[in-house]
Amino acid sequence: MKVPIPALTFDFAGIELNRRQGLSRQLYQTLRERILDGRLSGGTRLPASRDLALSLGISRNSVMRAYDQLYAEGFTESRVGDGTYVALLREKSPAAKKLSTHLSTGLSPGLSTKPLIMAAESSNNVIHSTAMHTLDQHHLRPPKSGLPRAFRTGVPAFDLFPFDTWGKLHAAFWRKPGLQHLGYGDPAGEWRLRELIAAYLRTSRDLRCAPEQIVITNGAQQAITLCAQLLLEQGDVVAIENPGYRAAGHAFGVAGARLQGMAVDDEGMRSPALGDSGCKLAYVTPSHQYPLGVTMSLARRLELLAWAERNQSWIVEDDYDGEYRYSGAPLAPLAALDRSGRVLYVGTFGKVAFPALRLGYLVLPRNLVEPFSRRRAVDMRHSEVGTQMVMAEFIAAGHFQRHIRRMRRAALSRRDALLAGWPQELAGCSPMIKPVAGLHVTVAVDTLERETELVAKAENVGVEVAPLSEYWLPGSETPVDDRAGLVLGFAAVPEADIASALGRLRSAWRV
What angle do the packed helices 399-421 and 385-396 form, to 10 degrees? Predict the structure, then answer.
């Protein structure tokens, strides 16, 4: 049955087209917008393409292309021998009749006439409230972008990366990539890169693992998130260093875990009690605790391993900057002492190469490799093949080890520049200790008020100093003033920039 045609006419007044841009596209967008906001009601007859072209001073082909696109997307319908009309909703149900009434009154069904920006502002209200509450509690601040300043934390000397060498390897791979690399890859990562990582860990960390135990990730953060997703259930307890790496805590919190802050002293994180079976997982940075910089003692390591084995719990070991040790070889990780398959080792290339690389890895107990690979495949199939293959060649050709040695020397030199120029008699602060590892140093401050003052004055002169108080879990029992301190990264900028920043700090702090 034919739907009666309302006596509605098309008004093309106000249609303005920019002749320097695609005319058909502009006309299509204009008509589509008028249909959506109700200015062109259902049943309105559109002018013949020839007439509209003449009225607008454009070619008929431009009008026809716009009409064809509207028809293809269901905004219009064609009636044989009678022209083109704005589509009417067929009345097949009470709901359809109600929507049809909206159309006939000039309102498009279910579409808001509010500006897009207003709809975006209310987006939080349409996400499940429990999920939003969790996200509000465990969100990450946007990382600092752009060129690093002194004394940004978590950033290596990526100004020293051999980009010429990397670029040549990258071009060589993509000039003639093997066809086997162009389909869907192994979600655990490219085999050659996993082989080379296993060999590197055996020689540099005394961590004896097989390539089959390694899963490539998009940086350390994805590795930690995978651990949270697969090892925890809603309400499980996670023991985490306090103060510690808050991004790890956020990953566990978003997975539904309850965070149990563990005190950190000169021997590293205190272990959960041996009989504590209520804790499902412990997250630690034993080689160089973040942010206090202490190394976990052997006694604490053995105690933690005994706890995990007895309670069938997990340990996630984050070796985020293990390459940077300034006396002797890098320390053997906790995973090298594990004999019961309870430790998951997280490694990253971001602290040796540059953070934007987004390349990390997990060394897993053998029984976890398959589920971790399956979970990763659900999220993103696999990591980008070019980066993996170029890194594999970078390691195989010896560039990686040479670069590590260069980065270690540079970090040591930049550390010494910071120590030489630091105002050791700064009021309200303890003297700066000499870090023996890592890319940052922490200075204790007497009160939270003094910490806030020093950080604000540093920011006013363009120097980044992180407040130690932000690394503590909310609700920590430690007195507020005992959480105060300054965290300074010393590897991000050259020695001259460090000296300049220290001069500005002395002036701002009136030392």
Answer: 90
Residue 108 — pLDDT band, cuts 50, 70, 90? Answer: very low
Instruction: For residues 7 and 170, give the distance between their C-alpha atoms in angstroms, rounded to a whole number.
Output: 65
Could you say which DSSP state residue 470 is in? G
Provide φ and ψ at 271, rounded to 5°. -80, 150
Q: Can you say how many angstroms the Cα of residue 184 is from the centroid of all Cα atoms in its chain?
A: 23
Question: Which of 398, 433, 455 is at the close of a domain?
Answer: 398
User: For 301-316, b where at least 16 C-beta lie within 10 A, e where not — what string?
Assistant: bebbbebbeebebbbb
Q: Which residue has the higher pLDDT, 102 or 264?
A: 264
Q: Is 183 inside any structural domain? A: no
Token pair recorded at residue 379: 């999220």
Total count of domains within the chain? 3
pLDDT digits (tens, 9 = 90+) for 38-63: 888 888 899 998 988 888 889 999 99
299 and 438: one domain?
A: no
pLDDT value at 270 more than 80: yes
Q: Domain of 270: which CATH number?
A: 3.40.640.10
Q: Which amino acid is at 283?
A: Y
Residue pLDDT, tens place only, 156-175: 998 999 999 999 999 999 99
In 3D space, the residue among 506, 473, 500 whose CA is nearest the CA of residue 137 turns out to be 473
Respond yes or no on whether the N-terminal peptide bond of residue 12 is cis (omega within 30° of 0).
Answer: no
- Residue 265 inside a domain? The answer is yes
In Å, what is the CA distance from 361 to each residue of 193, 194, 317, 337, 345? 10, 9, 12, 19, 8
